[in-house]
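Bug #77: duplicate submission created two jobs. Keeping one. Sequence:
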Amino acid sequence: MGHAAEFTEQAFDTDVLQSEQPVLVDFWATWCGPCRQIAPLIEELAVKYDGSVRIGKVNVEDHPELAQRYGINAIPTLLLFKSGEIVDRFQGIPPRTKLEAALESAQQA
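Kept job's structure:
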């Protein structure tokens, strides 16, 4: 366990919006080069924060309605949810330190 989850339209509300833990969602696609670049970092963070932050991915080609719902117009886009609300948003490939600071902050608040 501990690796990034695959979030789907069917379970998004339960898995993300109703989660008691903060949730980092990576909106990506298989053809996206930067998405493939950031994938190892997402996996590392999923292991590091296992048990305190849920980390997962949404394939925008499989779930375009989620991408539209959250205004995803470029990928990768990372959304950090806490108590069902977006508390942080990153587009492109943010530095590891910036992502970790956001995850740490979401755990504290």
